[in-house]
């Protein structure tokens, strides 16, 4: 009986360790406070002006939380002050560093214009360079929204996107980047909310747990016999 109890406890511990854990979670309640947490804002647009900003009350509703609880970038990413000259937009929002040793699933909500006359694009990229935040390090593309820059090609209203990244093992770490793209003359805005990055238990973990459950059941049948 004691061995059976120990087996059940061991299996319970294995199942608990195989559960997903949160690596990164952000609701964008305070965009101005992200830099202090290790996030990086980099605007590589032609004639850059505004970086990613806090959502605005009465302009667009948040997906979750308070009325301004989202982060946004818009056509004003590329402007030349009073002249108003606009150009190519490439506005980066880079997360803080987190572990890449285990596979993870990315989930977030994105929204864009509601009028069907603008062209906005968004890329989500991953860097495996540890704490480095140089945009050249983000070589792996995870999600591409409206990659061709089509008019009305971005989501009109909050839409959930997901992607999975295979873990690198060891002590690997890196960052995610959300890259707003477009042209200052034809873009409008992009908004993000409810970001979640959670580990994905390895298939081997489930296989071992399944084998253990089968073995425990077989042992119980033998005892009863």
Automatic annotation (TrEMBL):
Keyword flag Signal: yes
Gene source species: Roseateles subflavus
InterPro entries: Ice-binding_C
Keywords: Signal
Record NCBIfam families: choice_anch_J, PEP_CTERM
Ice-binding protein C-terminal domain sequence ranges: 199-222
Keyword Signal on entry: yes
Residues spanning the signal sequence: 1-20
Cited Pfam families: PEP-CTERM (PF07589)
Full protein name: Choice-of-anchor J domain-containing protein
């Amino acid at each position: 009986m004691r061995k059976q109890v120990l087996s059940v406890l061991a299996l319970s511990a294995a199942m608990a360790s195989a559960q997903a854990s949160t690596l990164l979670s952000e609701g964008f309640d305070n965009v101005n406070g992200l830099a202090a947490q290790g996030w990086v804002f980099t605007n590589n647009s032609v004639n850059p002006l505004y970086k990613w900003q806090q959502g605005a009350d009465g302009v667009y509703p948040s997906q979750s939380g308070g009325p301004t609880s989202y982060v946004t970038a818009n056509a004003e990413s590329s402007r030349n002050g009073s002249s108003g000259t606009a150009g190519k937009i490439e506005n980066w929002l880079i997360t803080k560093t987190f572990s890449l040793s285990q596979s993870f699933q990315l989930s977030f909500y994105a929204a864009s214009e509601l009028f069907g006359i603008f062209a906005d694009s968004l890329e989500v990229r991953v860097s495996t360079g540890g704490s480095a935040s140089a945009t050249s390090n983000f070589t792996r593309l995870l999600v591409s929204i409206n990659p061709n820059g089509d008019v009305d090609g971005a989501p009109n209203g909050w839409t959930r996107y997901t992607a999975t990244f295979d873990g690198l093992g060891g002590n690997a770490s890196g960052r995610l980047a959300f890259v707003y793209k477009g042209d200052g003359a034809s873009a409008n805005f992009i908004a993000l909310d409810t970001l979640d990055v959670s580990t994905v238990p390895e298939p081997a973990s489930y296989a071992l747990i399944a084998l253990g459950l089968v073995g425990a059941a077989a042992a119980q049948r033998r005892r009863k016999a």
